[in-house]
Automatic annotation (TrEMBL):
One of its GO terms (molecular function) is hydrolase activity, acting on glycosyl bonds. Residues 28-411 form the Mannosylglycerate hydrolase MGH1-like glycoside hydrolase domain. Belongs to the glycosyl hydrolase 63 family. Keywords: Glycosidase, Hydrolase. The keyword Cell wall biogenesis/degradation does not apply. It comes from Amycolatopsis heterodermiae. The lineage of its organism: Bacteria, Bacillati, Actinomycetota, Actinomycetes, Pseudonocardiales. This is Trehalase family glycosidase.
Amino acid sequence: MDVTWGSAEAVLADNWIGASTVPSRGLYPHQWSWDSAFIAFGLRHLAPERARRELVTLFSAQWRDGRVPHILFNPDTPPEAYFPGPAFWRAGRTSGLIQPPVHARAVLAVHRADPAGSGAETFLATLYPKLKAWHGYLRTYRDAGGRGLASIVHPWESGMDNSPAWDGPLSRVTPVDPAGFVRRDLEHGHAADRPSDEDYGRYVRLASAYRDCGYLDERWADVDGGFTVEDPGLNALLADAELALAEIADVLGLPAAAATHRESAARVAKALQETLWDSASGFFFARDVRTGERTREYTCAGLLPLVLPDLAVAPALVATATGPRFRLGEVHGVPSYDLTAADFDPGRYWRGPSWFNVGWLVRRGLLHHGEHALAAWLRDDLVETATGTGFAEYADPFTGTGHGARSFGWTAALTVDLMSTQDTQD
């Protein structure tokens, strides 16, 4: 275990660039939003001051409307190192998209790891209004369906870029000719592990269209061929984030605000179950807001509502997780896609492999719902697989073989966290 801890610590040290941590030196040479939150969970055990700096740096790039952009570009990185870079987005030092709101939970955990240091830096007091504005943006500007759920306007916003859940809505998008851009990701990873050229062409088309409407969500509904989807993963994490924000408000001595955040969490959780839960299937499916139809793909995003402690349908969802589609407790980690699907691919990005952040989140959910033995098994498997793959970005659920980048930031950080917290949820 000491070797594992030291190796993970070395990855995080190597990926630190002075004010934040890059996910990987080659493939992802900037700061990513939800990556930084997951990285902070690990850094709090090693260097809580760095964990605080990580999150403060990210929120320094928050937009006036409250959104937290999914990339904060490092000005010392050559523009040609990553596509799409700052020139594409035309948004200064950031992108214009978002990622799932795991930040409030990270802020709370980082504070608890070093309350004295946090207090001296007024860490909670500084970030609380920023987190409140972030959640407010999601609950208002992004409630495209009018049901109390936040929508994503691009697959990248889910954090699960090429998930099969997006195939239906994406089919309306005409891809950009691959000759019109250069994929820098293929310089650092195998094409078989990455999204296809056709998918990437659709991503570029969508990102361009959202940029060209000024990143104004109220105009997005009128853009032909657009993408507007209610994602169960993002909304489950939003409800959980509101619960974390309530705890932060309690620490700051704001009981009325704490009550408001708990009410908000309950509303999102209620809308999530009423809108995206399918009782016949025992699963949460995404919903295409533009057609009103649910997608029918079983992806790991549909398991993330387990993070909610009062989830009434948790027993049915655990049954799906341990059934043939995901085989939780039998394979490595949590597969990103239905193991029984004809197009399941154990090595291609979010179309089959197991990701360490998803496993970490599902483990938290299992603990909430009394599945302690399964949570302990998952913790041990995640640590063993992370170590055995050189802290790979993701892994084959059957063989445990690593795919994607190595020395990946959140894999190393969450390994440290799992080794530190054992069977607790904090």
